[in-house]
Amino acid sequence: MFKKILIANRGEIACRVIRSAQKMGIATVAVYSDADARSPHVEMADEAVHLGPPPAAESYLLADKIIQACKDTGAEAVHPGYGFLSERESFAKACAENDIVFIGPPPGAIAAMGDKIESKKLAKKAGVSVVPGHVGEIDDTEHAVKISTEIGYPVMMKASAGGGGKGMRLAWNEQDVREGFEATKREGKASFGDDRVFIEKFIEQPRHIEIQVLGDTHGNIVYLGERECSIQRRHQKVVEEAPSPFVDEEMRKAMGEQAVALARAVDYHSAGTVELIVGADKSFYFLEMNTRLQVEHPVTEFVTDIDLVEQMIRVAAGEELPFKQDDITLTGWAVENRVYAEDPYRGFLPSIGRLVRYDPPEESHEEEGCTRVDDGVAEGGEVSMYYDPMIAKLITWAPTREGAIDRQIAELDRFELEGLGHNLDFLSALMQHPRFRSGEITTNFIAEEYPEGFQGAPVDEVLRKRLAAIAGFAAVAHADRARRVSGQLDGPLEPPAEWVVEIDGAAHDVHVDLDDVSVDSEGMELAMAYAPGDRMVEAEFGGEALTVKIRPGRYGFSLTTRGASHDIRTLPRHFAHLAQHMIEKEPPDLSKMLICPMPGLVTALHVGEGDSVEEGQPLAVIEAMKMENILRAEKAGVVSSVSAAEGDSLQADDVIMEFE
Predict the structure, then answer these.
(1) Average pLDDT over all residues of the chain
(2) Starting from the edge strand earliest in sequence, which strands make up the sheet with 506-512, in order?
């Protein structure tokens, strides 16, 4: 077994690999850029080597520096994690040439499966069903239009070396192809160093299901069940679970055996994932093979009780798999939510900044359920524009699917995250959505269920009254503290017991005393402890637990729970009627401005001062988190001034241009 390994990655996955290595008694070496000098993975490792400036192209993608770091520290092997160099054939070869073990598949398998065009040809040759499409190289936009027309719309344009949702465009018509083909090429070139694009038929109402395979260097290959990854946004996975609620044992066996056959065709060893697109009739087609560890691997680990990272390391060291296919069993259900630095209330725009507060739920492993948090950040750290916006992964396990989902909801309520936009509310809303809970999902789920964007999870009357009770209780606690201020003329005053609590436009009469809290004359059976300054309360209503984040405001509180934040006004009843005379401040008129929706780089300005624009016309392109975002005119008008220039770095809400 290795004595020391280097992890050629950062963040969450670097921490994950280090944990398994430590469990095995293996020393670890971290690498880092200037932006990650104080990151947790650097602190966790036994040694750390500086690579360079923050951009990945000047640090984590420098294979020669990684190789040199292995030599300088005496690391015998290197684990690439996912992303960066993990699927670069040249890096795996460079490791071999320098007598460093690459903890992953052989270079030939990476080359065969990493190229989406060649992998589809190979899969087709091996008898694996593939999605109809053009698997050759495409010359230019006109060629792309011709191919798309022949296949039939809708089609998907994908960067050949792409992954992680980057370098992908859905085209419903010829105009979409003309607008998106070159952008797909640019994203492929910028993110993966390869601008080749292929086009395939887009299957409507599909599911995205993947098979985890694991092989050793002795010819043994097994499949470890499937993962359901259909909840996606812009082709980026958001929620994953194992097993899939759609897959039966017969289907699992058929998909697994095809995945193993494909892996065997390229002499695969180590962990790998065969991704499939599945139709409503349970037909499935090869999509691609990821020759690395997947982000969502923890759900498979939970239901199989197999540490995939440990097995990768053991396989790389020449050990044989300690189990056969018949030994693999799936127990219970696991769900993973990806916590992203993005603002779902503003169209899921990327968010960067400092983690002013970061306090995830505590990990637990019990018979009735388990909670695990995989992360690579710490309170006070910064989410940078240079890397993927994922902050953490929240994984729960329970004997049943419903139990694992309910545990997610409870743990998301306990997850504290402040300082930047995040998707905790959105994830909770997904977990509560009746369609998700039924298992009737497709990759179109988010687009279909949130066509107008996300404005918070819906609130029923029971939860609304419970929030009113909590707000009333907290208001009394604040009033009680205020009455203790010394120097009052008539001595300490008792805090009011009668309150009017306004939530979501509705007013509730709340009565609070030592023994009773009632809302609209209904006893709430509330048990909770709260003191001014607490950030979170654990309330019980008749024995039913509810965790709520609480933040005092000018006239009340902001309460966040169950996928939504509520600004609540609490007023003593004896002067609540005066609130109607307060003048509401009107927001400024921004309708004549093009506002930058996220921090990013201006890569293109399509119009200038004095130009007339039509509704839907592209105005500017903002690059953020390696993705190009086209800003379009919401209505016809004339540009009166332009405040930004190509190459400018803008913050969210900066003005790009104004209209007459």
Answers:
(1) 93
(2) 522-523, 517-519, 506-512, 498-503, 564-572, 556-561, 544-552, 536-541, 526-527
DSSP-H helix ranges across 317-355: none
Q: What does the block give as tokens for 410?
A: 């409870």
Both tokens assigned to 151: 């296949």
Name the residue type at position 407.
R
Which phi and psi angles does 274 have, rounded to 5°? -100, 115
| pTM of the complete model | 0.84
**Residues 333-366 as b or e (16 or more Cβ within 10 Å = b):** bbbbbbbbbbbbbeebbbbbeebeebebbeeeee
Cβ atoms within 10 Å, residue 497: 16
CA atoms within 13 Å, Cβ hemisphere of 581: 4
Q: Which phi and psi angles does 480 have, rounded to 5°?
A: -65, -40
- pLDDT category at 167 given cuts 50, 70, 90 is confident
Residue pair 535/549 in contact (Cβ under 8 Å)? The answer is yes
The predicted-structure confidence for 552-562, as pLDDT tens digits, reads as follows 998 899 999 99
- State the virtual CA torsion across 188, 190, 192, 198 in degrees, nearest 10: 10
Across the beta sheet with 77-79, the strand order is 47-52, 27-33, 4-7, 77-79, 101-102
Q: How confident is the model at residue 444 (pLDDT cuts 50, 70, 90)?
A: very high
Helix axes 11-23, 308-316, angle to 10 degrees: 70
Residues with catalytic annotation?
288
